[in-house]
Amino acid sequence: MAELDENLTLAQQENKKVLVDFYADWCVSCKIMSKEVFEQADVQSALQGWILLKADVTKNTKEERALQQQLTIFGPPAVLFFSDGQEVESSRLVGEVSKSQFMAHLQQYMQ
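and the corresponding structure tokens:
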């Protein structure tokens, strides 16, 4: 949580938005989204200028569980969007989404 708070502070100072991707190695949907969404050039281009964070909860440690509890994440995949240091809860994505769904969501959120 401290690392997230640091990045949110930095984002506020630099007037940037933040995306947090909750991921785990055992999560099949996470792997699909990583390859078919986040690794795609057009998605990376659309997220240029953002602070991108990946919360790897593979090991399910006490700290990882605490972060998920604090942000009310039941498990990956989940994508959270922050602006001005606060989560825009209405923009949260939970579960697997396609690249076209993600891009449409991102375009709506960015307006």
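(Above: one complete record from the training split.) The longest helix spans residues 2-14.
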